[in-house]
Amino acid sequence: MSKRIEVSDLNVYYGSFKAVEDVQLTVEPRTVTAFIGPSGCGKSTFLRTLNRMHEVIPGAYVEGSVKLDGDDLYGPGVDPVRVRRQVGMVFQRPNPFPTMSIADNVLAGVRLNNQRMSGAKSKELLETSLQGANLWNEVKDRLDKPGSGLSGGQQQRLCIARAIAVQPEVILMDEPCSALDPISTLAIEDLIGELKEDYTVVIVTHNMQQAARVSDQTAFFNLAAQGKPGRLVEIGSTEKIFSNPDEKATEDYITGRFG
Ligand SMILES: Nc1ncnc2c1ncn2[C@@H]1O[C@H](COP(=O)(O)OP(=O)(O)OP(=O)(O)O)[C@@H](O)[C@H]1O
Q: What GO MF annotations does this protein's record show (predicted)?
């Protein structure tokens, strides 16, 4: 299920503004990669290019390639909707559909993809997705209640269950814990550790301890100067980036000297 991501010569634009420049990186299957860096350096912009989500913004486009096990997501004729099925995304603020039940929220993506399923199959997928998001025990007796009635941390796990239900190969997370309390944050961090057994996981985080706790590999992004595009400064094992980075800018950021 899990796939390798290979990014080559990637530039990202919003109209004439180049937001991110010249990124090359590889993410191995069944690993967690964290993107860190100061505000505005393009972490979220770059993350969204990994499932073509930036294309929902008028005028946004990329140059370069993003390959999933060798298949270019930007190749001719590739359907962005199919890409987003393979590469799921979890956002900063939990965003369950407020009027839908817990069960319907989990199955919403699958239904959008027009996959017809028997009642028994739906039930099975509902349970395995909620189990996979460590939420089943907390909600199994109220599956028909609205998703909006859950706590923030539970809502975020519901969104993870919704992402898992479409059986993606990669899960992207854009600051998934920034709206959560410390206990819910730990629950999501534990879950990320479990998700990497089945998926390739990429997470944007402002929390350096979180990057150190959850990721195998860390990528540090930065701006060369105000108004210039963001760049990938350095990528390596999380242990190395946090203990012995090659670049001074990485060390300065990690040690809290800027950003
Ligand atoms: N929809 C958009 N239209 C135009 N410019 C945008 C858009 N979204 C982001 N940008 C610009 O692209 C650059 C990178 O922004 P982005 O949000 O990717 O950075 P970030 O590193 O994720 O920041 P943060 O850590 O604050 O979330 C910034 O200069 C930002 O103003």
A: ATP binding
Q: How far is the CA of 13 from the centre of ligand 1 (A)?
A: 11
| Alpha-carbon distance values, 197 to 228, 236, 245 (Å) | 38, 20, 27
Q: What is the pLDDT of residues 33-49, one digit of tens each?
A: 999 999 999 999 999 99
> How close is the Cα of 109 to the center of ligand 1, in Å?
27
Residue 106, sorted as left (phi over 0), alpha (psi -120 to 50) or beta, turns out to be alpha
Are 153 and 183 in contact by the 8 Å Cβ rule? The answer is: yes
The 10s digit of each residue's pLDDT in 148-189 is: 999 999 999 999 999 999 999 999 999 999 988 999 999 999
57 in ligand 1 pocket by Cβ < 6 Å? yes
Gap between the Cα atoms of 239 and 35, Å rounded: 14
Distinct helix (H) and strand (E) counts, the chain: 10, 10
Q: Do the Cβ atoms of 223 and 40 come closer than 8 Å?
A: yes
Ligand 1: does its nearest atom lie under 6 Å from the Cβ of 118?
no
Structure tokens at 188: 């999501």
**Pick from 231, 232, 229, 233: nearest CA to 19:** 229
How many whole angstroms separate alpha carbon 178 and alpha carbon 102? 22
Q: Is 229 in the pocket of ligand 1 (CB under 6 A)?
A: no
Predicted TM-score (pTM) of this structure? 0.95
- What's the CA-to-centroid distance between 60 and ligand 1, angstroms? 12
- Checking ipTM against 0.90, whether it exceeds it is yes
